[in-house]
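User: Run a structure prediction on this.
Assistant: Running it now.
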Amino acid sequence: MKIKYLILAAALITISCSKKVNLAKKNSKQKSVVPYSDPNNQGQWVLNTEVSDEFSTATLDENRWHVVGAFVNGKPSYKNPDRPHRDDWIGRAPSQFSGNNYRLENGMLKLETRWEPDFPFSDKADKVGGKEIKHENITTACIIGRKEFLYGYMEIRCKAADAEVSSAFWATGGLTEFDMFEFFGDHRQPKKEAEGKDRELWWSIHDWSKTGKGKTTYTEHKYFDFRVADDFHVYGYDWSADGVKIYVDGNLFRDVSRKQINEWDDVKLSKGGNGAAENYVITKPLKIWLDQETFPWHGVPDTKEDLHSSGKVEFEVDYVRVWQKNKNNNN
């Protein structure tokens, strides 16, 4: 009997050690992940695990992400635990953010836009392009990172929703906004289809200070040789005090210096901007947003069939990773 106990104890110790070894290997693998554009890590990047996410868990990590419009007592709530004295933005009309419009599946985050006329929409209308537009019919998804960081290499592997709604990866903080991309997977307007809107990289910088008032201080429209909703691609953003470098599937796509951004004629081209003030305002810590929105000036789905025959489309995100140069969250 004693021998049996000794054998059993040895087996349990072996299993326990094996689990620890496997866990150590897993943690080591996570720490060794490097930017797709820098496989040898010549930049000596260090993964910021507080703001990165592989979306491989059964439930969303709500210490890492805040879900906008989470349901409380049968109604969407726009209270933000990190900004208790200010409600969240509910999304641009006609759509509205719903906390029910996301799920984790097969190691991916799936953000959904739904045709949902029975949703308890806000009575407040938005003024868009001088017109009052109600929140109705369309619900979208939005999650916001709860940790800030300053400068680094941001990378996302994703596939945009194949519809006339945006699939966006952006960040806010310090009264500034950095729109890494706002993709439109499809357009029903022939002119915009001909322009290649479903292949477009639209990225921007905005100033939300008292002087900037949300004006665009830099923007670009560039085009890929693929539709953003056809397949997964890896988009990387090297954001530093010196400017922004954009990588697509590991290759440098754009390199825009701070000097170039400051020389952009924001007054003439965006009808306002910062004028003589510096355009490169993204110099403070930011939080990442992942969401879908409607843009009425680009056209929106007017019926369930315009959205999709199923009444639902998905923005699929495999991972979000952020690397930095050191532990002090600075370059």
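Helices lie at 2-32, 190-195, 258-263, 266-270, 304-307.
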